[in-house]
Write a structure and sequence with these properties.
The longest helix has 21 residues, at 2-22. It is flat, with a radius of gyration of 21 Å. The chain has two helices and no strands. By secondary structure, it is an all-alpha fold.
């Protein structure tokens, strides 16, 4: 399987890279992280579902606020 993927990449990558390089950079670039998150949120139309890894009450959030104890 990996050989097939490598062959496809070798066959198509050069043309794809040339096309992307030649394409005009017309997409607006967000100024900061907040603008990026806002732009993504505005494009999202579905429902967001958070996956839980722990049962309710089995995990205590650390007090430092960074997700690492």
């Amino acid at each position: 399987m990996s050989q097939q993927v490598r062959a496809l990449v070798a066959q198509h990558a050069p043309g794809t890279v040339r096309a992307l390089d030649a394409a005009p950079a017309s997409a607006p670039i967000p100024a900061d992280v907040h603008a990026t998150v806002v732009a993504l949120a505005e494009q999202h139309t579905g429902t967001v579902t958070l996956n839980r890894r722990h049962e309710d009450g089995a995990f205590k959030d650390p007090e430092d606020g960074f997700g690492c104890g």
